[in-house]
Design a protein that fits this description.
about 140 residues; mainly alpha
């Protein structure tokens, strides 16, 4: 990958983490509270939660999946490590990312708790990743090439 391509990919990964945190930040900002009683509140709540879960899934794949869009683009020596256990990856895939009967058969799942539990690990890992990029590849933070 060229420096420009890596810069673009790095910027995209920063976006992924911001989007994964969007639901949490929506709640913390007070915007969610300001919409209580509004007809769009449940739709916005669910849309932001599902969007954040989808982006959290992307972060998980970045750190754990062997692909051309993983942490290995930046550090070929980096061991691939999923952010969470296989059961949670399957749960997210089966019950949020894909249409399935799981919810009808097994009931609702507390996705807010899932997001809160796993987002902190994604943020911790991403922070460590950025420290390493800044240390070993500072040119990626300069002007776009």
């Amino acid at each position: 990958m060229t420096i420009r391509q890596k810069q673009t990919f790095l910027r995209d990964m920063c976006y992924v983490l911001r989007q994964a945190a969007a639901f949490r930040d929506y709640g913390r900002s007070g915007v969610e509270d300001s919409l209580i009683g509004h007809p769009f509140e449940p739709t916005l709540h669910n849309a932001l939660l599902e969007s954040s879960l989808a982006f959290l899934r992307k972060a998980n794949e970045f750190f754990g999946m062997k692909s051309k869009a993983s942490i290995r683009v930046f550090f070929p020596d980096q061991p691939l490590e999923w952010l969470w256990a296989n059961e949670d990856r399957e749960l997210l895939n089966e019950r949020v990312m894909h249409l399935s009967l799981s919810e009808a058969l097994e009931g609702k799942y507390d996705w807010e708790d899932f997001l809160n539990t796993h987002l902190s690990e994604a943020e911790r890992r991403f922070s460590a990743f950025l420290v390493r990029v800044k240390s070993e590849q500072p040119e990626l933070f300069g002007p776009r090439q």
